[in-house]
Amino acid sequence: MNPEANNLLTVLYARRAHASVNELAAAANLSLAAAAKALDGLRARGVVLEESPSGVRLRRPVNLDAHLIEHGLGTRRVGRNAIVFGEVESTSDVALASSRQAGADGLAVLAEAQRAGRGRLGRRWVSPAGANVLMSVLLLDEPARLSGEALTIAAGLAVAEAVERTVPAAVTPTLKWPNDVLIDDAKVCGILVEVRRHPRRAVVVGVGMNVNGAPPPETLTRPATCLSDHAQGPLERIDLVRSVLQRLDAWVEQITDGDAAAVTRRLHDQWVTRCGMINQRVTVRCGGERFVGRVLDIDPLEGLILQTDSGQQIRLPAATSSVE
Question: Are 58 and 39 a contacting pair, CB within 8 Å?
Fold first, then answer.
């Protein structure tokens, strides 16, 4: 990407008001001619600018942009490199296909639309184009240090923490085991962690977050919502993406480099404070069987701990379980 165009884009993103080319050139430390050329370059790559007699500004909310996601992100591993597509089959498929490339660890793949987005247990993930966060993060894990169970818990926490830090309203996200983030008991985000050997052990964390649009009601089996419905207006997806990447990076670092027992306790404690399932009676399908009972606890490594109606205490893994 053109560094002068990226520099100018950073300046535009930080401003809300219209600005003249002279003002933008000064802020970006560019000549007037270079600023005008950079603006043309931004238009050519699909950046939408609003123009008025007082100058130009970005149309809000801003389309997803790899430079704006990466710029000053400050992560150690997750999201150091980002790529944004207009449309793909699945961001997770793109991430997995990238695992053979040098420097692919931590790659964040995003798209404005997916033709074949997927959720857990073979379900389809549906999202209106250009409204939400459709993202997959690739983590190359040799030797294997990233548990799929722990990473599912960590990714849900990262999303909840990002919403708490970013959404400018009294929006309180809650967590539903194993992979859902809810607002007022309606789903706002789903997590899908997939582990493949491709040929190295590749872990992909898929995040589907309803930011400025919910899926059509006819595609739903359970209530869903979007963040903007609770935040008095459209939200900047770039801000949310950056915050999710920063929080996921912090959790991944703890899981891979921290004391295992301490990290497990931390994941558990942070999850449980945001989860309303403890002591609730639930029905869970796992491995073709149906279990009904009271939730005793959630173990970040071993799954849901359930006291069944028959008095048996069992542990149900996230990878093969679904709460009805």
Answer: no
Q: Report the amino acid identity of residue 100.
A: R
Residue partners of 115: CB distance under 8 A and separation at least 6? 87, 88, 89, 90
Which residue is associated with the tokens 């997916």?
114
Determine the Cα–Cα distance for residues 264 and 258; give it in Å rounded to an integer: 10
Rounded distance, CA 59 to CA 305, Å? Answer: 48
Domains and CATH numbers, the chain: 3-58 (1.10.10.10), 66-270 (3.30.930.10), 281-323 (2.30.30)
Q: Are 58 and 49 within 8 A, CB to CB? A: yes
Distances in whole angstroms, Cα of residue 206 to Cα of each of 106, 147, 180, 257: 13, 15, 12, 22
Q: What is the pLDDT of residue 122?
A: 63
> Residue 121 — pLDDT band, cuts 50, 70, 90?
low
- Determine contact, residues 202/141, Cβ cutoff 8 Å: yes
Model confidence pLDDT, tens digit, residues 245-282:
999 999 999 999 989 999 999 999 999 999 989 999 99
Could you identify the residue written with the tokens 């549906």?
126
The CA dihedral of 226, 230, 231, 237, to the nearest 10 degrees, is: -10
